[in-house]
Design goal:
Strand order of the largest sheet: 1-2
CATH class: Mainly Alpha
Number of strands: 2
CATH architecture: Orthogonal Bundle
Helix content: 40-55%
CATH superfamily: Cytochrome c-like domain
Shape: globular
Number of domains: 1
Radius of gyration: 17 Å
Length: 132
């Protein structure tokens, strides 16, 4: 009995420490935003354009820089980056017209679809990251 209670307590604690689980409605909304604002360059399949626009699908850069995603999307990028061993120098335009809720949905779609993450980022977390 003591083992069962301990296991339950650990499970509850672990669940509280993780972000919210994937909300498929939000992911679907993020997909629509991705198709409108990102797919021209990064392509529908997330594979990018060879040596010009970096891939999102399986991109080590996304996994290593998750906290930068909201800023990259909102403000764009000017600097050179290394993705999966390839250097990309193309400027990424900003998407400053996206609301915080849209930005959150878009980040969650990119994370879910291309980085295979099952944890969502909250709108509050996006706001904090934008202000860092």
């Amino acid at each position: 009995m003591r083992v069962i209670i301990t296991f339950l307590m650990i499970s509850i604690l672990a669940a509280c420490m993780e972000g919210p689980s994937v909300n498929m409605q939000q992911v679907a909304h993020g997909q629509q935003l991705y198709e409108t604002h990102c797919a021209n360059c990064h392509q529908l399949d997330g594979k990018g354009i060879a040596h010009i626009v970096p891939p999102l699908l399986g991109a080590d850069y996304i996994v290593q820089n998750r906290n930068l995603l909201p800023k990259m999307i909102r403000y764009g990028m000017q600097q050179r980056i290394l993705v999966n061993g390839i250097t990309y120098q193309q400027k990424m335009p900003s998407n400053g017209k996206l609301t915080d809720a849209e930005l959150t949905a878009l980040v969650n779609f990119v994370e879910f679809r291309f980085a295979k993450s099952t944890q969502l980022i909250s709108a509050d977390s996006v706001k904090l990251l934008l202000n860092q």
